[in-house]
Structures are given as structure tokens and as C-alpha cells.
Amino acid sequence: MQKLYLLLIFITIITSCTNSASQSNKTNKVATKIVADYEVFNLDFELKEISGITFINDSTIAAIEDENGIVYFYNLNQRKVIRKLTFSEPDDFEDLVKVNEDIYTVTSKGDIYHITSFEQAEPKIIKYTTPLKKKNDIEGITYNEEDNTLLLSVKAENLLGDEQTKSIYSFSLKTKSLNTSPYLEIKHTDLEEQFKGDKLEETSKEFLKMIGNENINKVITPTAMAFHPHTKDLYVLSSVNDILLVFSRKKKLKEIITFKGREFTQPEGLSFNSKGEMFISNEGKKKTSANIIKVKEIR
Fold first, then answer.
1. What's the pLDDT tens digit per position in 173-209?
2. Residues paired with 86 in a beta bridge
3. Is residue 63 a contact partner of residue 41, using CB atoms and an 8 Å limit?
4. For a Cys-Cys bond, which of 10, 39, 62, 158 suits 203, CB 3.0-4.6 Å?
5. Do 40 and 291 contact (CB within 8 A), yes or no?
6. Domains in the chain, please, with CATH?
7. Report field, pTM of the whole predicted structure over 0.85
8. Which of 259, 271, 260 lies closest to 235, judged by CA?
9. Surface-to-core class of residue 211, CB atoms within 10 Å of its CB (0-12 exposed, 13-18 middle, 19+ buried)
């Protein structure tokens, strides 16, 4: 009864606010778009735990799943795996990216595996360790050609122990070292401003926090990243809220893309082909297979 009384008080206060205050909350919001059409490529059981993808060429995607040290080469035209490359013992592999003739993979604790000349039958494997740990939960890796670095996205807390700021760090391929100063920071407080609804909705959220429901604080959990090959914008995928954050070359949030559909079971991977077409991979569930989704229209 006391909780209901508190909620009624909140509603009374909020509904008394002026319309001008509501309008002021919308002035700084960025453009929002939605995935309007897509095509689904269902995957076999061996890729049910798919956790990352990267394009080898416009018809072939390299994929990794989070239990085995195997790169799977999937042909989009044939809709099947055409090659497997074992490069490591089992570990918690989260993502991979092609850089010229090499492939780099990353584990949740921040270890990077360098697969040199992956087209060869037995490529050389080099492992790099970083200051990142399991508690940081690294899930995304991509290549930044502007400064020849790998970008690593944190899903949990950053190196300062802050869970409300999702940091992206850069790893130099020249020095083989991690820059502990973030390349980009995504703050929950900034994103909450973008997702704010009307006053009544915000009051309800505050009430939920009061009674112990803290899950609504999870605005974004970065699971993959990729640069658009033409615009050079950085796309950051989140499995929470099913969103893509688009950052300009100047690292400014310029767009939020949302997507819905039963096929988006658990978005884990993101990559673009040379045409600029976007592909998102999803882990499977108990009764559904994993998949790779080609985004055909955003509006």
C-alpha cells in the first residue's frame, strides 16, 4: 500500500509539469531509425553459439563461436560452412576481425589471437595479452585503419571499475600494446537522455528503482563493433535494447538504429561488406537456430 501511495504522489507531481519542460527534454535527441527489412541465413548447430563475424569477401563471412578456437568460413551464396580453421584450444572467444591477410580474435578477458595469413593451411598463431581482464568482459573487436589499431569494447566495467561507462580501448598493431586511455566512452547517463519518454514513464522508472528493480539501468551492453566502409562511421551493437549506436568520425553520437523481430534472438556479431551492406549475427536459443541477418532497409 505504501508503494502504491508513493507512485500516486510521483504521478501527481509529474502530470503537473508544463508541456514546455517536456519539449525541452527532446531538443538534444539524435535521429532514430529502424531496421525495416532484412533477410535471414539460418546456421547449423555447430554455430549455435556464434559470437562474432567478419567479411572475408562479399560472399564469405568468417565466424567464431564462444567455446572453441575455430574460425568457420560461411559462404552466403551456398548457405553453408565451406572451411574450418582451428587456431587454439577452447576458450571464451567473443569476436574477430579481418585485417588485410590476417584475422584477429579476442576473448572475454582481453587476450588477442593473431592468425597470420589465414588462407594458408597452417597459419602462424601469435597471442597478445592486455591489461584487460575477465571482469571487463570484452565482446567486440574491430579494425581502425586510420591509426592501424584494433578497437576493443567493454561489456561490463571499464579499467577504472566503472560499469556505467562502456569504454572502447585501442590496441596498437605497431607496438602491440593497449592504450589504457579510452578511444571512446559511452556513458549510460547520456544515453538515458536519448531514451527518455514522457514524464509519467520516467516517474514509473524511478518507482521501479525504489523497490529494487535495477535492471532498467542497463541501457547498453556492447557486443560488437564495425566501421562503415564508406562513411567511416563507427557502429556499436548492443544486445540489450536491440540497438545500434552510430558514431561519426569525430566520435559524436549521430544516430540510433533500433531493430525488432523474433529472429534477433541475441545480437552478438556485426560486419559490413564492401558495398556497405550490414550483417548481424545472433546466437541460437533452445528451440531456434543461430543466424546471420542481412539488413536490407533502414528508415
1. 999 999 999 999 999 888 877 867 655 555 545 544 5
2. 70
3. no
4. 10
5. yes
6. 31-195+218-298 (2.120.10.30)
7. yes
8. 271
9. exposed
